Amino acid sequence: MTSDEPDPRAEPLVLAAAAHEPTGWFDLARVLAILAVVVVHETSGEVGSRDAGDPATAAWWTANILDSASRWCVPVFLMVSGALLLDPRRTDRPRDFYRRRLGRIGVPLVVWTAVYLVFRSFYLGDDLDAGQAARDVAAGTPFLQLYFLYVLVVLYLLTPFLRLVVRHTTHRMQAAFGAVLLGLGALDQVLSSFLDVGGASAATRFLPYAGYFTLGWLLRDVPLSGRAVRGAAVAFAGSVVATAGLVAASAAFVGWGNPGRYLYGYLSPTVVVMSLSAYVLLRAWGLRHPPGARWAPGRRTAALSALTFGVYLVHPLFFYPLRRLWPAPQAWPLWVGVTAAHLALTVAGSLALTWVILRIPVLRRAI
Length: 367
Prior knowledge:
There is one protein chain. Among the domains are: 30-47 and 301-367, no CATH class; 95-222, no CATH class. The longest helix has 29 residues, at 94-122. The chain has 15 helices and no strands. The protein is mostly helical.
């Protein structure tokens, strides 16, 4: 038995290597992750409204719990990308890879950067001159969600080299490499959050997230036992409770800001545990529900998955106007109803707009 083969003595669960296991769960992961992204953005206004000493209302607690339970979204997106792109069995030349991937991400980056700079200036009323716009683009943060595109661009540039690491190292070395990258990213977030040192640019914004990208491949390929899956479920639930509780304690003493903002960050300790656990649980679902089985991700899930990138790009065009036209009241039952309506309308509108754009030849490259 080679070191890459599953141990038959492990607790049974359909142990499978990446070369043989179903991959429909990637579609499921993307669909659930984009829903979680919308939840994070929709609940952020309520969570950020609490000042030190203010009582925690039922609406605030609901928003905090929903936000805390959704913080795995961006890390899982990155891990799914790493799982697919770092596969050492891929033999495409770097030139071909760059032509496909950078072309796929480059046009949306340029188009939506321009769209959201205009949106900020004319709809949100930001005081945005050419110099500030240039600085925001150089920082890789022209708008709320677009930093992710700048992260992906550089990770794509590094992918052919990271494949060499994956191809020529053992699982143990890959785990150490991913852990070091993730640890450096977590340390960077601590230093920037609490000591106000450093600062990411469009060229370096990928660095804190490279560990997730790398570990996506490693965790795709390791055997999963029933005990490991149960442990991941406990870790996920515990990390959600810990995140919500620590954010609540922070808000009670200092209001919204640090350390609460740090605790919600994608590289805080609780969110790291949450994200890795969520990825393992999603993969375990795929192993337990292969194609053809009941509840297995199928064509509908794949069709929705194909729209998730577009939903990520366009959804602020819906939830910002909805917030302005239909503010959520403070009374808890009404807050829940209005927030649920915001979420449904944002997701439905974003799916519809993405579907339309993809069917217009001159526009489809923007998504």
